[in-house]
Amino acid sequence: MMTLEEFKAKKDDDEFAPGWDEIEAAFSEVYGNTKPEHYGTTITSRAMFGGNEYLDGFSAYPSPKGYSHIVTFGMSELYYDEESFGGEFSKWGYEMTIKLKDTDPKSCVWAMNMMSNLARYTFQSERWFEPGQYVGSANNPESINLSKPDSKITSLLIAQDTEIKGRDTIYGKLDFVQLVGITTEEFLKVKENRDLVPVLLENLRADYPDLETDMERTKNYI
Question: What are the residue boundaries of the structural domains of the chain, listed by start?
C-alpha cells in the first residue's frame, strides 16, 4: 500500500487516478484485457462545476455469458484527495453495477441514466445503498426502462455483485453493489417481508445465475 509521502508526491500528477485504477483492476480480474466501452459524462454537467451530474462516467464490459456488465465511476473517490487518504470507506464505499441481457452497450444507455439518478439521490440526500435494500414504488409503478413501457421490470433490488470482489484501497473499502431488476409483484412481497430478499435472489439465480436484469422477463420468482 502506498505511504502518505508517496501519495503526496503524486499531487501534481494529472494522470494520477488511484480510485479509477482500482475499479478497472477489479474488473480485470474477471475480464482480463477485455476493453470496455466507456461513456464519460459531460464535464460542464458535473456537480463540481455547478451541474447536477455526480458521476464521471460508466464502463460497459461485454460478458462472454451474454450480457453487458456496467459499472459507475464516481461513487468512490477517483482522484487525488489528501483528506480521504487512509479512510475507512472510499467516499460512499461502493460503485454501482448492473448486468443487462443486452450485448449492445449503446442499448444500455438508459441504465446509465438511471444510475446517474440514483447517484444524484445519494449525494443530495446522503442516503446510500446497501445489499438487501430495494428501490421502487407501489403506486403507479413504471418500467425502469421508459423506452420499454410494457416491461414487467419496474423496481430494483440491491445485491453484492456476483463476480466483482470488493477491494481495500488507499481511500478505504470499495465494494461493488449490483442493481437487479425485479417485477412489481416481487417488489411488493419483499417490501412486506424483507426476509424474502435472499429467497428471491436464490430463486432468480436458477435462471439468471449472475442476477442479470432481463427487461423481457414476465415470470415472478417469489
Answer: 4-132+158-183
